[in-house]
């Protein structure tokens, strides 16, 4: 039945090699990048970037800290003048809403809504790692100044 | 040298096997959470939101004309 001709076998080998190569290339690509450029995600990124101007002084004063769960937290309201406290609260709430939406949208944009929790955990770790010196960060349940 | 047409049954079988294998590879990749890719994505977004790496001048969105809101 089979004709064990060498040229054909080597052709088969080549075809298989090409396919395995393509699969690997795709794997590397898929592993290398998550989709974060959808309109929804871009809008959230932009909103968060603009809000950062308002939040940065609050991070620096210690009023707001980088929480362990991928959110920000008003940890010392007394550090904010009373007149600005409502604004600070609103900024924190808006930021956390955007962050929750961001994690959800990234998971969804990549076809795996169930990844939301892992996306959140990954971001939480990176926010903490990259917080600037002087900012307050939460490790476990306790807060410390970076 | 090689005949592209008229693949012998063994070649065709291997071809099919390779196809199945590559498809399976794609599925496998997407089942597991791509932690390294997620970290890269997080860093990209954090750079942008916190406007880090300003020295490189690579800020994708420059908000200079956004003054005077409210």
Helices, strands, pairings?
The complex is a heterodimer of chains A (146) and B (70).
Chain A: H1 6-32, H2 39-61, E1 64-66, E2 72-74, H3 82-109, H4 116-130, E3 136-139, E4 142-145
Parallel strand pairs in A: 1-3
Antiparallel strand pairs in A: 1-2, 3-4
Helix pairs in contact in A: 2-3, 3-4
Chain B: H1 9-31, H2 35-49
Characterise the protein shown here.
The complex is a heterodimer of chains A (146) and B (70). Chain A is α+β, with helices and mostly antiparallel strands and 146 residues long. Chain A folds into two domains: 7-35; 39-145, no CATH class. Helices cover 64% and strands 10% of the residues of chain A. Chain A has helices at 6-32, 39-61, 82-109, 116-130; strands at 64-66, 72-74, 136-139, 142-145. In chain A, strands 2-1-3-4 form a four-stranded mixed β-sheet. In chain A, helix 2 runs antiparallel to helix 3 (82-109) and helix 3 (82-109) packs across helix 4. In chain A, 26% of the residues are buried. Residues 1-5 of chain A have low confidence and may be disordered. Chain B has a domain at 9-55. Chain B contains two helices and no strands. Chain B has helices at residues 9-31, 35-49. Chain B starts with 8 loop residues before the first helix and ends in a 21-residue tail after the last helix. Classes of the chains: A alpha+beta (146), B mainly alpha (70). The interface between A and B is large, with 45 and 41 residues.
């Amino acid at each position: 039945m089979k004709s064990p001709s060498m040229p054909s076998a080597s052709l088969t080998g080549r075809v298989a090699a090409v396919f395995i190569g393509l699969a690997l290339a795709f794997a590397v690509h898929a592993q290398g990048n998550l989709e974060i450029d959808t309109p929804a995600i871009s809008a959230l990124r932009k909103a968060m970037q603009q809000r950062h101007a308002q939040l940065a002084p609050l991070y620096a004063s210690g009023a707001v800290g980088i929480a362990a769960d991928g959110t920000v937290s008003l940890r010392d309201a007394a550090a904010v003048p009373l007149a600005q406290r409502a604004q600070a609260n609103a900024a924190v709430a808006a930021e956390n809403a955007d962050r929750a939406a961001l994690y959800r949208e990234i998971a969804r944009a990549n076809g795996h809504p169930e990844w939301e929790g892992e996306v959140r955990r990954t971001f939480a770790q990176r926010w903490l790692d990259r917080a600037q010196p002087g900012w307050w960060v939460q490790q476990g349940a306790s807060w410390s100044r970076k | 040298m090689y005949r592209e047409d008229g693949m012998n049954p063994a070649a065709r079988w291997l071809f099919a096997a390779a196809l199945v294998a590559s498809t399976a590879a794609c599925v496998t990749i997407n089942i597991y959470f791509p932690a390294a890719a997620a970290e890269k994505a997080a860093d990209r977004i954090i750079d942008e939101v916190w406007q880090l790496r300003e020295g490189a001048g690579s800020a994708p969105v420059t908000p200079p004309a956004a003054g005077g809101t409210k």
